[in-house]
Amino acid sequence: MEYALLVALIAVVCIGAVTFLANGTKSTFSSAGTSLGA
Question: What's the CA gap between 38 and 33, in Å, rounded?
Answer without folding.
Answer: 5
